[in-house]
Amino acid sequence: MTQDWIERIPELGLLQETALREQCVAVFTDACRQGGWTPKELDAIPMTLGYPGAPSLRTHIRAVARLAHQTFMVFRELHTDTRLLPDYPLLLAGALLHDVGKLLEYTRTPDGDFTFSRQGLLLRHPFSGAMLAAAHGLPDAVTHIIAVHAREGDGSPRSVEARIVNKADLLHFESVRDLLAASSA
Fold it and tell me: Exposed, middle or buried by CB within 10 Å (0-12, 13-18, 19+), for 181?
């Protein structure tokens, strides 16, 4: 099962800590089960319901994970003081799982469109994603990243890793939003 998920989201393979990678896979698997999705449907589920033509949830998850990874690589290359390096495994796990709650937040309509699920109308994805991560025993630091990555975390303390994921998420989301708007103008 892990290999299937690594083929779907290759950035999972960057997590060298086997136990943490397995926990991330368990969270994705459980989120699909609870939301009624298959892993292949991550290519169909939009990253956001607000912008028609937005990339898939899978693409967004991969983009945020890569942006977080590259940020770490820049820090590692430029900072000789290891105190200035974020915790890479926690950063990457949080980036990979930041939007896993969308698998519970969204549902398909009878005509094949996407909309908010009943649960999604009550709990946005940072909450449901954090609950999934906690239920699967991920470190509190990863649950924190998921919980505060979006606007729900504004005004709350964010770890360095959570701040990087927040910025990577916004960078991809806002770039997509603005590029879609510019292309339709």
Answer: exposed
Q: For residue range 12-67, what is the model confidence (pLDDT) as tens digits? A: 999 999 999 999 999 999 999 999 999 999 999 999 999 989 999 999 999 999 99
Residues 33 and 135 sit within 8 Å (Cβ to Cβ)? no
Tokens matching residue 126: 């940072």
Domains defined along the chain, listed by start:
2-184 (1.10.3210)
Q: Please say whether the beta carbons of 49 and 106 come within 8 A.
A: yes
Contact 90, 141 (CB under 8 A): yes
The string of pLDDT tens digits covering residues 139-180 is 999 999 999 999 998 999 999 999 999 999 999 999 999 999
The tokens 């603005």 sit on which residue? 178
Q: What is the rounded CA–CA span in Å between residue 92 and residue 138?
A: 13
Task: Tell me how far apart the alpha carbons of residues 123 and 127 are, in angstroms, rounded to a whole number.
Answer: 6
Beta bridge partners of 115: 107
Token representation of residue 102: 């969308």
**Whether 12 contacts 25, CB under 8 Å:** yes
Specify the pTM.
0.96
Q: Single out the residue of 95, 101, 102 nearest to residue 160, CA to CA.
A: 95
Q: Supply the DSSP symbol for 73.
A: H
